[in-house]
């Protein structure tokens, strides 16, 4: 029997492919930040993040480039992803988070719990009348794909891609859940932005005192001004050295821990504890959190999180290379799962917000710091007042720190309740 082979892509040189991907990202982010009306209108409909996945996917579908035959994803996922986790979490200000520990902190934690439990509950609900939507076997098991949404909605893109590597959903399934992630999350953000314009009414309903928001606005504005600076070459080299140095250390330790567990406790493979990559991302996140208690966190003022974002979006583009664009509409039932999931998150936030009389600002930013991460939490915060945008960044950094852990737990719960 003659073996069929996939035709070689038009471009096979990874250096050329990398150049194309980075140019695509540059064009997307340049146009997304443009003041021109045509671009503002376009990106109000089509999220920039979706294009970062979609355009490389189209190039792959047209066989111009090939994710399957390229080594770029392997390099990016092992080097750029853990480095971005370190740099995102290094600026975590534990003292400021502690100051927010009451209503703002509780609303953030409530949002996290809502995402962690909402996924398993959505699977349970849908499985009662349409088990095929949330079923599947092996890499096509829907819970595996939904776990990547949990990573995105608790932390952000880095946590999502970490869950992709740990639970390994099929590329087609991942393509479908990416569409669910982006569309449902943006619908929810639109709801929050609308609510920001009606925040006085919501605060009145919650009987909330919003004076704490005003005090917080002033504190954060002063802190932001105190650390922002034009980055020097030593700053950039230090950021790179910390990111890649701790990535190397994480690789060294994960290469020891995972084989030891495989040998001495092989049953833990069910929880991915024998996965070297799982330990890689957990260690990188932990190292960043530890460094956040030192002066190293001031590197955020020189752009640590912006460097991390650049790393992250290169990885996003390499993921897009592996996607089949037709899979985006192949499983419409998954959108029902996503809507039920985000509704659980919303319901829990409103119940707790009402009980503790939290200002709507804390509810909205606590939610978006989970669901949208550092890319959109500042947008929601700034809808209340531009000076409050850093609050969204601060809480979303906490999301990056806990996203890997929360999404992993949510994934295990989804695995337990998913139909066979």
From TrEMBL:
Annotated transmembrane regions: 15-33, 45-65, 71-92, 104-130, 173-197, 232-253, 273-291, 303-321, 333-353, 360-385, 397-418
Keyword Transcription: no
InterPro entries reported for this sequence: DUF819
Source organism superkingdom: Bacteria
One Pfam family this sequence matches: DUF819
Cleaved signal peptide residues: none
Keywords carried by this UniProt record: Membrane, Transmembrane, Transmembrane helix
Protein name: DUF819 family protein
Organism: Pontibacter aquaedesilientis
Organism phylogeny: Bacteria, Pseudomonadati, Bacteroidota, Cytophagia, Cytophagales
